[in-house]
From TrEMBL:
Protein name (Swiss-Prot/TrEMBL): FabG, Dehydrogenase with different specificities (Related to short-chain alcohol dehydrogenase)
Bias type Low complexity, positions: 157-168
UniProt region (Disordered), positions on chain: 108-174
Protein source organism: Penicillium digitatum (Green mold)
Length: 174
């Protein structure tokens, strides 16, 4: 997992949809460690695959997702608020199951309302389309566009005077 110092916690829900309703939670947090005399910044697993929903879709007993306010603040924002940042946000397995069930219901409704769509074949890789080359204008088109711009500029500003290219040959103003 790639971490930046701006991320204080990553929470992952692993939902088993193949013949089961089981769901687990994993949490990673960043840490510095010395490895072979070199300081490394890496992700450390704090909770790994802890079940919060059973195979039958019921909340497990005793599972609580614990996040602190510190998980949502950068070090700069945290300065001067140390006591406040240690306050915890607790989400029970029942609440997690309710959130997940609600999301699954919305997903099913959205899928049903999709209608008929063309899907990409399994295993096919998606690629960006080639960039469209810039349009090449002929000198005649460029002149026409420039005349339209000059006309528009003249209409937009009452104190506008045409440039020397459209003024008389001495560059004098009318």
């Amino acid at each position: 997992m790639l971490f930046t110092k701006d991320v204080n916690a990553v929470v992952a829900l692993d939902i088993d949809y193949e013949g089961s309703n089981r769901a687990t939670i994993t949490i990673w947090r960043p840490e510095y460690a010395i490895v072979n005399g070199v300081e490394e910044f890496r992700a450390t697993t704090v909770i790994e695959a802890q079940p919060f929903r059973t195979d039958s879709g019921l909340p497990t007993e005793g599972t609580v997702l614990r996040l602190s306010l510190r998980d949502f603040a950068t070090e700069e924002l945290a300065r001067g608020h140390v006591e406040d940042l240690d306050r915890e946000i607790l989400i029970t397995s029942k609440q997690l199951c309710d959130f997940l069930s609600s999301a699954e219901v919305r997903q099913q409704a959205q899928t049903k309302q999709r209608g008929s769509i063309n899907r990409i074949r399994p295993g096919a890789l998606k690629r960006r389309r080639p960039q469209t080359p810039p349009e090449q204008l002929s000198s005649e088109d460029e002149g026409s566009i420039e005349r339209k711009r000059e006309s528009k500029r003249g209409r937009q500003s009452s104190d506008y005077f045409p440039s020397s290219s459209s003024a008389d040959s001495k560059g004098e103003l009318p």
